[in-house]
Amino acid sequence: MTDSQLDPEDAKLITLARASRARTxxxxxxxxxxETGRTYTAADVALPSLALSALQVAVATAASSGASRLEAAAxxxxxxxxxxxxxxxxxxGPAPVHIADADGTPREVRTP
Length: 112
What we know:
This protein is α+β, with helices and mostly antiparallel strands. The chain has a single domain (3-110), classed as Cytidine Deaminase, domain 2, CATH 3.40.140. It is 33% helix and 29% strand. The strands form two sheets. Strands 2-1-5-6-7 form a five-stranded mixed sheet. A two-stranded antiparallel sheet has the order 3-4.
């Protein structure tokens, strides 16, 4: 998959996820878009009493902001999202999850 094959709104999610990752220096950045077009971004959270992936945080932020459905999600990381990450998207989906390398190059799309 190339950038030119992505819908511009999905490419924007990858850009936002990459920016979250870079801003915080975490291994993963994520972004989701809800049914109204609002976007939510997040990075990994690693506290002594709480550990959440970037995608879980982005989904939780969308849900706590009143979103009832996701249109799409993006994850920028060296690895793949976990089953727990995909399950979080599925809770408000199904929605395609665009997976990109750390440099923002799209790698895969999964629909949980």
